[in-house]
Design goal:
seven-stranded antiparallel sheet, 4-fold beta flower domain-containing protein, mainly beta, 105 residues, Bflower, single chain
Length: 105
């Protein structure tokens, strides 16, 4: 089942094809990152820290450099995940911020 990810305002910004999928896509279906470190931290397609999945939110947390994760291989076409609607506002964890490049207006 698709795992939709939202910003703190409740706007849909990203998704994974299912909960165990290591690839993350933006709401337009473009590959934006993956989970290489066996935790909830997401690297972008260049290998830099993008954000962290916290519940159903994708947020940026202060993180030290985690090292270059390598390249996971192309994820393929994800298909359309369906529109999840609005998730509602949720306050950010301490020190966290929304990811500006994924902000939906």
């Amino acid at each position: 089942m698709t795992e939709h990810l939202f910003d703190s305002s409740g706007n849909w910004i990203a998704f994974r094809r299912h909960g165990g999928d290591k690839y993350v896509f933006d709401s337009d279906g473009e590959w934006i990152g993956w989970l290489p470190w066996n935790n909830a931290d997401v690297a972008d397609t260049e290998g830099n820290y993008l954000g962290t999945i916290v519940g159903n939110r994708l947020v940026r947390l202060p993180r030290p450099y985690l090292g270059y994760p390598g390249y996971p291989g192309y994820p393929g076409y994800p298909g359309y995940p369906g529109y999840p609607g609005y998730a509602g506002y949720q306050s950010l964890p301490p020190g966290a911020s929304d990811i500006p490049t994924l902000k939906r207006e």
